[in-house]
Amino acid sequence: MGSCASGTQVPKSTLRSGSRNPPFSTRPDLNLNTPWARSRSSWREEEPVTKPSRKLVGKCFCGAVRYEVADEFVYAANCHCSNCRRTTGSAFKPFAGIEREKFRLTTGDDRLLIFGEESGHDAHCGHCGSLLYSVVREGAYVHVAMGTLVDDPSIRPTAHIFVGSKAKWFTVTDDLPQYKGHVT
Ligand SMILES: [Zn+2]
Ligand SMILES: [Zn+2]
What we know:
mainly beta, Metal Binding Protein, Guanine Nucleotide Exchange Factor, Chain A, 7-stranded mixed sheet, 2 helices, binds zinc ion, GFA family protein, metal ion binding
């Protein structure tokens, strides 16, 4: 799939470190109750607890599939590529990207219609056909089709991408930056 679904490029600075492992060995023979180990464990207790974030709900047209996603989207854009136009039947697809672990299906995971591979696919409701989200970037991120959100997210689309393959019958009328392909 030569489209945005193969992985939207985002600036490196917006990527978060995935590792939460403490920077010391976890060998069992070092987990002794020594003063050194105690100081390490008290250091770990001082680590900030992940603060609970606002949760957004989304669903398909018929309601068979529902999801919950943290209101912590990393980026959002309107994609004009031909795949997004066809999967949504629209001029473009507003989508918002987030780490996959912050997205969770709450109802109807057995009703999903998956189009694509495990590491990159579109997920539709198998009953009504709504495109709910895409798994992208080697399975690490989810692009939520913003039209399926029930709640209002904090983020707004900040760009038009793949304007190079935009439908001729549609004119972009806002002032958001436009990119021929991915954001550069
Ligand atoms: Zn449905
Ligand atoms: Zn697209």
